[in-house]
């Protein structure tokens, strides 16, 4: 979508976009985003992570001070960061969860979801689940009877396994769950599953309605397949240099620098020149 006027909202994916491959915010990126907010530009973090996984980044970027918002679980939950008030939420149905558990066992995949401050999995944690636990600071709880111990409200499930296996299964599962859930292959070792018709763009639509923001005022940045919806929805959709070509094709602008090369600093210079002159 073509932007009209000067953008006053920046929406950032986290992994592969805002943070480096080491899952940290580069000091120059942090400084640029703080300067951006000091000039009245609203910052929104839109991630596949659970809220607990977004909060440490939100604290570093001082979203509480500047009135920022979080779109978590790929759009399934929208939160005002300062108050932790939920503005919108959507859940997976129990029937869909049961089917996912069955399919995970059939295809030899791991399955995990999020409880209150913890990761719940049905099998011995694989490297992806252990990494998720490490950077989110959420302990892993193993329950072989996954359905019995899963929370009543589930915003998102992850299916984990070998990258080549998930790449092959992605189109099959997307077709199988058509009309029931959305399946995103956003990381090589996992498939993210959200409620039907829920993605980051839907979460943003709900938030923008609440804040009376037009998408033409917005710059969205992302690097993966779960970002395509919001790249298309925003006034300006920005794909990172490290994004797959299939994602870049939906962007209005592709950065020259990757997430490990301060690509977001480039975005601020390009679209918010009053903050960081070129």
Explained architecture:
With 278 residues, this protein is α/β, with parallel strands linked by helices. It has 2 domains: 9-89 and 199-271, Rossmann fold; 94-195, Hypothetical Protein, Haloacid Dehalogenase-like Hydrolase, Chain: A, domain 2. Helices cover 37% and strands 23% of the residues. The longest helix is centred in the middle third of the chain and has 14 residues, at 94-107.
Instruction: Please list the strands of the largest sheet in the order they lie side by side.
Output: 5-4-3-2-1-12-13-14
Tell me roughly what share of residues is in helical segments: 25-40%
Residues in β-strands, percent: 15-25%
Overall number of strands: 14
Instruction: Please tally the helical runs, counting DSSP H or I stretches of 4 or more residues.
Output: 12
Give Rg in angstroms.
18 Å
CATH class group of the largest domain = Alpha Beta
Give the N-to-C terminal Cα separation.
24 Å
CATH architecture of the largest domain, by name, is: 3-Layer(aba) Sandwich
Query: What's the domain count?
Result: 2
Summarize model confidence as the mean pLDDT: 95
Major pleated sheet: 8 strands, mixed
Low-pLDDT windows of residues: none
Helix vs. strand class: alpha/beta
Strand and helix order: EHHEHHEEEHEEHEHEHEEHEHEHEH
The CATH homologous superfamily of the largest domain is named: HAD superfamily/HAD-like
CATH level-3 fold name of the largest domain? Rossmann fold
Shape: globular
């Amino acid at each position: 979508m073509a932007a009209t006027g000067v953008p006053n909202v920046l929406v950032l994916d986290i992994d592969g976009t805002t943070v480096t491959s080491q899952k940290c915010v580069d000091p120059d990126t942090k400084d640029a985003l703080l300067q951006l907010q000091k000039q009245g530009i609203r910052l929104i973090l839109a991630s596949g992570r659970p809220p607990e996984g977004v909060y440490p980044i939100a604290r570093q970027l001082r979203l509480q001070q500047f009135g920022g918002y979080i779109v978590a679980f790929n759009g399934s939950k929208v939160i005002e960061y300062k108050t932790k008030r939920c503005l919108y939420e959507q859940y997976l149905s129990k029937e869909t969860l049961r089917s996912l558990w069955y399919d995970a066992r059939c295809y030899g995949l791991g399955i995990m979801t999020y409880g209150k401050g913890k990761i719940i999995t049905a099998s011995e944690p694989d490297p992806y689940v252990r990494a998720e636990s490490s950077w989110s600071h959420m302990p892993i709880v193993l329950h072989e009877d996954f359905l019995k111990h899963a929370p009543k409200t589930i915003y998102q499930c992850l299916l984990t396994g070998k990258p080549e296996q998930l790449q092959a299964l992605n189109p099959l599962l997307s077709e199988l769950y058509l009309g029931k859930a959305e399946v995103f292959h956003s990381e090589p070792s996992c498939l993210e599953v959200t409620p039907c018709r829920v993605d980051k763009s839907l979460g943003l639509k709900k938030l923008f309605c609440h804040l009376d923001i037009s998408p033409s005022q917005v710059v969205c940045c992302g690097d993966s397949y779960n970002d395509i919806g919001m790249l298309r929805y925003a006034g300006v959709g920005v794909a990172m240099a490290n994004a797959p070509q299939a994602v870049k094709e939906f962007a209005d602008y592709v950065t020259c620098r990757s997430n490990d090369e301060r690509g977001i600093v480039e975005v601020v210079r390009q679209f918010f020149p009053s903050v960081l002159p070129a």
